[in-house]
Amino acid sequence: MKTKLTLSFAAIIFLSGSLMAQKKKEVAEKLFSDLVGTWRIQTIYDGKKDITSSDTTKIQWLEFSEDGHYKSVTGILATDSGSYRVNENHKSLYLQSAIEKGSDNTVEWKAEFKDNTLALTQDGTAHAARYRYVYVKTKDKNTANRPIKPQQ
Questions:
Q1: Distance (Å, rounded) from C-alpha 41 to C-alpha 20?
Q2: CA distances from 2 to 11, 138, 146 (A)
Q3: Which candidate, 121, 115, 107, places its Cα nearest to that of 136?
Q4: From CA 38, how far away is CA 72, in angstroms rounded?
Q5: What is the structure's pLDDT at 151?
Q6: DSSP string of 24-91?
Q7: pLDDT value, residue 149
Q8: 85-93 — which CB contacts under 8 Å span 24+ positions?
């Protein structure tokens, strides 16, 4: 009787652990799949102040592909590219530039998704923490590699 009870208890723990692992995998895949596509800057904040009209990145685009690569475009000029990864537990996005050479060329962003928007903020320096960049998704992952047509 004790053996059956012990085996039943072990099976329940194993199954609940497997379900939790599957749930974490689904969350990671959702965060990754939400990110894939093309994003156009919508609003730039300095603290609570909207500075979009005066900022030089007001025509910026970010493209994230399914193969883990990104491209940053300002106007029609590609300004950065490289690889990215996400950490679903910390809602972090890591961009590792292929253009910026050096030992520490990875930038960490806090990513918040809401509907079709992506808000990116940084920690670290007081200057970086002041700014928040809000992007709107303009294309789904099936059309992420098509040419960008900047909108005003």
A1: 35
A2: 14, 60, 63
A3: 115
A4: 10
A5: 38
A6: HHHHHHHHHHHH-EEEEEEEEEETTEE-GGG-TTTTEEEEE-TTSEEEEEETTEEEEEEEEEEETTTT
A7: 42
A8: 86/28, 86/31, 86/32, 86/35, 86/111, 88/24, 88/27, 88/28, 88/30, 88/31, 91/31, 93/35, 93/120
Q: Which residues of 96-129 are buried (b: 16+ CB within 10 A; e: fewer)?
A: bbeeeeeeeeebebebeeeeeebbbbbeeeeeee
Q: Give the pLDDT of residue 58.
A: 64
Structure tokens at 76: 């029609």
Domain 2-142 has CATH 1.10.860.10: no
Of residues 73, 115, 79, 116, the one with CA closest to residue 98: 79
Tally the residues of the chain.
152
pTM of the predicted structure, to 2 decimals: 0.68
Distance CA 74, CA 139 (A): 17
Place of tokens 């883990």: 68
User: For the chain, which ranges sit under pLDDT 70?
Assistant: 1-32, 55-58, 101-103, 139-152
CA distance 82 to 106: 10
